[in-house]
Design brief:
Serine Threonine Protein Phosphatase 5, Tetratricopeptide repeat; 331 residues; single chain
Length: 331
């Protein structure tokens, strides 16, 4: 993955709130004329102080353009495109430091990029999670009510704890629970049920009876995530999370039904999530083979989607459905 170091030049000059009339407010007629250089120095200091918190309009415009570019790369979800997305997001954050969105996006990207790297690169992953946490802190300082920044910062903390070992990081559990509860208050359906997927991941890492001791029942979590699937059936990530949880619960038919659904439907139906959808189709292929011992009939078609994920429109692939809503009773 390429490392980007390009930095946008910082904006210079006073903010838009400065007043030219300050040049004439010194009262020099009563105290005697002051040297021009002294008056200019005082004026510049006053103007600089007045503009400290201002956002020059050209920086915000440029930052928004960079943020859009970052999102267009992020949607593809290949390693190269995600590295480019991070580059553009960091440029946007530098161009307009007081705008929350690019900081939140940097947090999300660093977390997602680290999550893709093998655990054998532990120190690199921990450094990337630390970058995510720092960006999340900047976003939350600007907007404490931002659910995305809190979500991805929490996932970064959890990812780092997973790498270091949960035995030494159980003290973080109350923080995870409080943060996820807070996100559910701010946006109960954030990221198509992101908080529900978080708890699925926790359940997949601990014995189910132990999770029950902490007040989490696998059936309840599965039910909550299945409701998110019904709310947005075109988002495929929820299906693979449900499939893994159902398999662990021993409900193997439900697990295979979830995998089969996304392997037979169009990942471009939710266009903004097409790259992520294709990733979860590929994961569904792996899980299907792991669970059944054989390839799914649509494995070849999914491989084609994977190669063509950057198309502006969905290519025609035989055997893939249109991505319409699920029939009642599948959940």
């Amino acid at each position: 993955m390429r490392k980007t170091e390009k930095i946008f030049p910082s904006a210079t000059g006073p903010g838009p709130g400065w007043a030219p009339g300050l040049f004439f407010c010194g009262g020099g007629a009563r105290r005697g004329r002051q040297p021009v250089a002294f008056l200019l120095t005082v004026t510049l200091v006053v103007l600089a102080a007045a503009g400290l918190g201002a956002e020059p309009a050209n920086d915000r415009v440029r930052a928004e353009a960079l943020d859009r570019e970052a999102m267009s790369h992020y949607a593809i979800r290949t390693e190269e495109e995600m590295a480019a997305a991070l580059d553009f997001a960091e440029q946007a954050a530098r161009a307009c430091p007081n705008w929350v969105e690019p900081h939140a996006l940097v947090c999300e990207l660093c977390c997602n990029i680290s999550d893709r790297v093998p655990n054998s690169r532990k120190e690199w992953k921990l450094a990337m999670f630390a970058r995510a946490e720092a960006a999340g802190d900047k976003a939350l300082a600007l907007d404490p009510q931002n659910p995305g920044a809190l979500y991805w910062k929490t996932l970064s903390l959890a990812g780092a704890a997973d790498l270091r070992g949960w035995a030494d990081n159980l003290w973080l559990y109350p923080t995870f629970r409080a943060n996820m509860d807070r996100i559910d208050v701010l946006d109960p359906h954030y990221y198509y049920g992101g908080t529900k997927r978080f708890w699925v991941e926790v359940l997949n890492r601990v014995p189910l009876f132990l999770a029950g001791c902490f007040g989490y029942q696998a059936e309840d979590i599965a039910g909550d995530l299945a409701a998110e699937v019904r709310r947005e059936p075109r988002y495929f990530c929820n299906y693979t999370y449900l499939a893994r949880l159902y398999w662990k619960m021993g409900e193997k038919d439900k697990a295979l039904n979830r995998l089969n659904y996304i392997l037979r439907h169009d990942p471009f139906a939710l266009y903004a999530s097409r790259g992520e959808n294709i990733e979860h189709q590929l994961m569904a292929c792996r899980l299907w083979k792991e669970y059944t011992g054989r390839e799914h009939p649509q494995t070849g078609a999914v491989a084609l989607w994977s190669r063509e994920r950057s198309f502006p429109a969905a290519p025609s692939v035989p055997g893939i459905g249109s991505g319409t809503a699920l029939a009642g009773g599948q959940h």
